[in-house]
């Protein structure tokens, strides 16, 4: 039974969560509750719960601050965050603290149970890793070499002692010469795979623990690097690269991903640490690689994720990042014109910032847009994932080329979104959608479109929803406000003119409808995003 600590300053929410846990049927029990940060930290130190649920807004300190204190001592305990605010800044900080999930109030029992299951899976994975390492057969030299590597990376013994043993086994062939880089490879669940291959990869056959290590060695040899691999757990492998430049490391990771896909029929996400100059620094590099790989749940699976790309950005210009939500909204909608308009202004502002700050900002935006690719089933994910945007961005060194690359990437994602939505829709209804976009100013709506399409209004209404997935009214409303947002980005246009162009004769009614649809009045929208 896993012990859960609930930290929330509202009594009724704590009681509601306790009831959800009791009714979930999961092997989880609420061992303690706290209404403030001081009590939460005391209970954590005294009771060491297995899972911690933290409200972000507490009377004495932020739940994020509590998590930071815990993470200074403990990188393992699964953390769940609960808040009433869907804040980009909060989400970013939660990611940097290796949160299992970020839940919004009021949370449903389904979402809460799913988060608890993910926390349970994290605990099982960590415990399985420890058990497998403890029972590894040290008398077998290949397994003993893996054991030594994990001793060093996971700091199970003093580094100097492990390095001496590695020298005694003449491991210099795998570990000669800096820089050293660690790859954390997370194997994803197989979709379709032969039983024999599955059992071999999972360690069910004699000597199978070397299968992945062999692939890593071959991939490194193909790029001129030295490699030494080890199995951390059932689905996690670690690779130590020596004498490898950043470009060589990237190419090796790409070779590993391709080999695993082709020969083991498995997808793999690979986190890459920053290079270090001494073997004694490898434990920190290992932690960086793990943290990068665990980001795959946010940026998409089967990705190569450099650690540098996941570090939380703290730019001085919060005004730039305020455009994130608008940018993502327009990309998700596939509105090329709006994306171009925002990018033009955004790029001009970025051009005046230091290179390091530019890289942090654009990387954070890429992370969020990658989540669109991962979560939106309508997007052609395979072709987009093959681009490895984080990897491409990590190798750029100059601000203008970063801005140019990210701008092109955003436009490409928007195009994929639009094309994916249009795919499979008969040409006749493509023309119907085009007609709606071109006639937003006109009255008549469905009846006028029915005349244009030579159909009865009733039949057109039914077929339109069947083919496009949206009713005529819903589609027309969405297009009106998408177009309104585009037009409002042009400060030369008055609000009354924008209202008229999208079919509102009354400016006041337009303002009310715009706020109901977007949460902001047209004037507030301009102040926020321009």
Automatic annotation (TrEMBL):
Gene Ontology biological process terms from the UniProt entry: phosphorelay signal transduction system
Protein's UniProt name: AraC family transcriptional regulator
Modification 4-aspartylphosphate, positions: 55
GO molecular function: DNA-binding transcription factor activity; sequence-specific DNA binding
Taxonomy of the source species: Bacteria, Bacillati, Bacillota, Bacilli, Bacillales
Domain of life, source organism: Bacteria
Species for this entry: Paenibacillus terrae
InterPro entries found in the cross-reference section: CdaR_GGDEF, CheY-like_superfamily, Homeodomain-like_sf, HTH_AraC, Sig_transdc_resp-reg_receiver, Tscrpt_reg_AraC-type_HTH
Entry keyword Transcription: yes
Domain Response regulatory per the UniProt entry, residue ranges: 3-120
